[in-house]
Amino acid sequence: MDSGSVISSTSACSITTGGNLWRRKHSTNNIYYASSCASKASKYKKKTQIECNILRSQQSSLNHHYKRIEGGATYQDCDKKYVVKAIPEPTFDSEPCASNPENVVDSAKKILDVFYHFCYPYSMIAIILCAISSSLLAVEKPSDISSSFLIGVLQALVPHLFVAVFANVVNQVFDYEIDKINKPYLPLASGQLSFTTAVFIAASLLIMSFWLSLVIGSWPLIWNVVLTSSVWNVYSINVPLLRWKRHPLLATICTISVWAFILPITFFLHMQTFVLKRPIVFPRSLIFYVVFMIFYSLGMALSKDISDVKGDKAYGIDTLAIRLGQKWVFWICIILFEMAFGVALLAGATSSYLWIKIVTGLGHAILASILLYQAKSIYLSNKVSTISFYMLIWKLLYAAYFLMALIR
Predict the structure, then answer these.
(1) Where would you find the membrane-spanning parts of this chain (predicted)?
(2) Which of 6, 56, 179, 359 is the S-S candidate for 183 at Cβ 3.0 to 4.6 Å?
């Protein structure tokens, strides 16, 4: 037998693709020279590609490697077997999905949704408008509104916004079980966020608010952060002597103290003493502002419990809506809001400027009318309807902040 020739016997040509082995039998009696081996291997390569493409239609390309297995222990080239091993090349279909832009967008949406429900945007808007309107009460002439005035408003806003989000996170941590019934969509109650992460967020925000107020160096802002964070901790934290939200009177005191006293007075004094460098005063406009917010914040404190009766009753939160019933509390709130608008009307009517009398008088009369009209269409047995009423209260407050800022 010539060493330069290869006799192809009735041996099997094994085709291995991934982890599967396909065998095809073939036989021939022809003798080929060594130079024909490459063409024969090429032929089998083409056949194998066709078969592999049929078996694995999702694979876009196959990298075929040919392994020659020696059939005997002699140096003769006969009885050689050619095993075709097909190894799939990586394709884009098998790439991890983490880099997919759609997944990045979805993750960003989830983070924003969690932040949204921690912030309570309706209260954040109210805080921003409260800071602006309270600051405008310190304006005595048009030249007072300058770049330093705008910077002063931002200085007042940022630390308190951090405190407000901190207070919301703390409230959700200690209201976890209640929120599963009343507000299952919140980050903690829905399982979107862990307690560890929530506590870390709360601590970080509180530290940031204290640090910023100290860096700014305004004593009214420092007192704003200290008092607000203390009041909301007393309101929410479930330890002996605290958790004042369980008692209607104490819960109301917390709400009134923040919205009617701490916010407007500290924001005003920050602008008056720190930004405009004037002595401490309590003008008539600020006094009317505080009285207006006493009635309005009292109504907000009572009305927020109307839609949460079921969960509060299950966990022993003794609200006025549970004691007196939703209907009684609802109409008490309407009376309180109308009294607040009455105070604002009186404040505008006693102004020395005619245009302020007209604008504030007409504006607050319209707000009072809208509230009374909408109150007649509220169904207290429908939670969606009561929540809609609660959001209306905040919207009316936004408009009232603009009107109260005009009073001189």
Answers:
(1) 120-139, 151-174, 194-214, 221-237, 249-269, 281-302, 328-347, 354-375, 387-407
(2) 179
